[in-house]
Design brief:
Layout lengths: L1 E3 L8 H9 L5 H19 L3 E6 L2 E6 L14 H10 L5 E2 H8 L3 H14 L2 E6 L2 E6 L9 H4 L3
Antiparallel strand pairs: 1-3, 2-3, 4-6, 5-6
Helix pairs in contact: 4-5
Amino acid sequence: MSRALAGDEGLADADVFEAAYGFAYDKERNDGVYRNLLTKARKRLGANGEITTGGAGRALVLHHDVLVPDPRCGPSLRELILRVMASRVDGVRSQDIAETLRVPLRTVQATLGEMVTEGACETHKEGRSPMYRLEDTTFYEPSLTRLSPR
């Protein structure tokens, strides 16, 4: 049995929350979200380990060796989204990207919104769903007319 996070003492809830979400924990405001995170983490761990409470706070106790990819060493979500979009030149729905990458839809939509604002991609409606297309300036001159719906 091995321990992760901060060893036997664990980490305070506020420190776990801030490490996961990148901003300070306000128990009154964020407790429901934090409890949901713990529930999902416990479910994902399954028989491989458990999240315990004691000492200074929460500790991750592993019952088996696990391999956890370091997100800092892999492609960013934006890069993954660009790869999916590049494979579908006529456009792709945000739902399709989310399903392909197994990422929450709202996360994909937020990233696509930033990309549209920055001009990295364009959006148009196809039926009721917005479709997203890349602005490819590698082989074509930038042209908004090229991106307009056909």
